[in-house]
Amino acid sequence: LPSRVISFFSQYAPTRCASAPTSSEQGTLPPCHHHEAVHDPQLVPCPCPLFSCPWEGHLEVVVSHLRQTHRISILQGAEIVFLATDMHLPAPTDWIIMHSCLGHQFLLVLRKQEKYKGHPQFFATMMLIGTPTQADNFTYRLELNRNQRRLKWEATPRSVLECVDSIISDGDCLVLNTSLAQLFSDNGSLAIGIAITTSKVHSAEAEM
């Protein structure tokens, strides 16, 4: 894993959307507001999960909205380590950061959610703040590495034009049950190595 470690605490604003409801306030996830009708096809709903933010805007101002309104931190570098703390918090809980590299911004969402009552799971996905066509140009890797155990997930990021709830429902992300998460956690913290590269297929096409 890369040596640079970024630590976030889930109870603070940089790791969760500001004013996001906790499980004590709301037992189930709100409906995904991405499915609501958007009158202007050029407008993007706020991609911040667990918070029904009414904001809509163009892709180029999504980053400034997330930073200013929801106070989500943005990290630089192709490879970083994201340290999510307080993994014991009740579901639903989100840990969120933005990752800037290769001239683009990505949104990492780590969610603790109960798909079945009494059985919380962890879901981690990377979304490009861009179009699905742009997202196809990249590959992201999430890696857990502890006590001589290593677990990798590699995939093409999805676009923020898609709903994170749908990505989790489809299972197109890194999924950990509680027991597996505990194997890789250290005192309630989970270190996730993040690496983003340009897709090999698209790189080869560009060279032709």
Automatic annotation (TrEMBL):
InterPro entries: 7-in-absentia-prot_TRAF-dom, SINA-like_animal, TRAF-like. One of its GO terms (biological process) is protein ubiquitination. One of its GO terms (molecular function) is ubiquitin conjugating enzyme binding. Pathway: Protein modification; protein ubiquitination. It holds the Pfam family Sina_TRAF. The keyword S-adenosyl-L-methionine does not apply. Its EC number is 2.3.2.27. One of its GO terms (cellular component) is cytoplasm. It catalyses: S-ubiquitinyl-[E2 ubiquitin-conjugating enzyme]-L-cysteine + [acceptor protein]-L-lysine = [E2 ubiquitin-conjugating enzyme]-L-cysteine + N(6)-ubiquitinyl-[acceptor protein]-L-lysine. Keywords: Metal-binding, Ubl conjugation pathway, Zinc, Zinc-finger. The keyword Ribosomal protein does not apply. The RING-type zinc finger domain is essential for ubiquitin ligase activity. The SBD domain (substrate-binding domain) mediates the interaction with substrate proteins. It is related to the TRAF family. E3 ubiquitin-protein ligase that mediates ubiquitination and subsequent proteasomal degradation of target proteins. E3 ubiquitin ligases accept ubiquitin from an E2 ubiquitin-conjugating enzyme in the form of a thioester and then directly transfers the ubiquitin to targeted substrates. Belongs to the SINA (Seven in absentia) family. This is E3 ubiquitin-protein ligase. It comes from Oreotrochilus melanogaster. The gene is Siah3.
